[in-house]
TrEMBL record:
Residues 85-177 form the Methyltransferase type domain. Gene3D superfamilies: Vaccinia Virus protein VP39 (3.40.50.150). The keyword Methyltransferase applies. CDD domains: AdoMet_MTases (cd02440). Keywords: Methyltransferase, Transferase. One of its GO terms (biological process) is methylation. This is Methyltransferase family protein. One of its GO terms (molecular function) is S-adenosylmethionine-dependent methyltransferase activity. It comes from the Bacteria. It comes from Kribbella kalugense.
């Protein structure tokens, strides 16, 4: 197993970002839930990979994505970073969350026209731009903070994307990337071009960035307790269509929120998702 001990050498001593255990507390920030499944499928078709707020059977996956954005808004001083880019913004809930958290100027970037139309309609105060993630339309050093969550695994040119992040990030700026952990993520997702282990993820960023924090997202106490009794909740969701789930699974998924996940350093090979925080040169 990969030992991230060396990362502690460059961890910022003035912050408490990498706590021994970080349980995500309830936040007063709320993102508008999509009104209905019909509303989503009319403006932003569900692909089986994309998730959105307000759809009960997507609730686990949405909460798992939401947890990383909530961690950013709780633990990183985004309100002092200047311009922020959310690269690969997708449905737009995360970009909106960054804006609601007090960030001064937030831009979402995505390539698909349908996605951008949806974001502009559902989150009208969020600025979104169409562009290619490996060749963005932004100037050098344009942003003080760049986030790209659950995106890099979809890209064919991952090193080129990382290089592009380095180009548009201002010196001393902060980059946050997340991706599923290949060692624990179910295999066979054809939307993913290349999934990464913690070691591979770090290796991808090393040529361009100083990695300050390597974190893993894990199930919290409630989800862990459920799985002890019933088995993997992820496997159970993937084993059948949602209208065939038993009552226990359906109740769990309906009630899952971002507070059911923990983000912490250590045991990265056992985590569900990987999160790297890095600084530009």
């Amino acid at each position: 197993m990969w030992d991230p001990f060396w990362l502690t050498v460059s961890t910022k001593p003035a912050t408490d970002v990498t706590r021994e255990k970080h349980k995500l507390d309830a936040s007063p920030i709320t993102v508008p839930a999509t009104a209905s499944l019909t509303q989503v499928t009319e403006t932003l078709p569900l692909t089986g990979e994309r998730t959105a707020p307000g759809i009960w059977h997507e609730n686990y996956w949405f909460a798992r994505h939401d947890a990383a954005y909530r961690w950013i808004t709780a633990e990183l001083p985004i309100e002092r970073t200047g311009r922020i880019l959310d690269a690969g913004c997708g449905e737009g809930y995360g970009t909106e969350l960054l804006r609601l958290a007090g960030a001064g100027s937030v831009t979402g970037l995505d390539y698909e026209h349908t996605t951008l139309r949806h974001v502009r309609r559902v989150y009208p105060q969020t600025n979104v731009v169409r562009g290619n993630l490996v060749q963005t339309p932004f100037a050098d050093n344009a942003f003080g903070f760049v986030s790209s969550l659950q995106t890099i695994e979809h890209l064919w040119e991952q090193p080129r994307f990382v290089a592009e992040c380095a180009r548009i990030l201002a010196p001393g700026g902060t980059l946050v990337l997340s991706t599923p952990n290949r060692l624990t993520f179910p295999s066979g997702n054809w939307y993913h071009t290349r999934e990464l282990t913690a070691a591979e993820f770090v290796e991808l960023l090393q040529p361009y960035f100083d990695i300050t924090h390597a974190l893993g997202l894990h199930h919290g106490e409630r989800l862990t307790s459920w799985e002890t009794q019933y088995g993997s909740c992820v496997d159970a969701q993937l084993a059948a269509e949602h209208d065939q789930w038993d009552d226990n699974l359906a109740a769990l998924v309906r009630s899952t929120t971002y507070t059911d996940f923990e983000i912490r350093p250590g045991n990265l090979d056992e985590s569900l998702d990987l999160i790297l925080v890095a600084t530009g040169g």
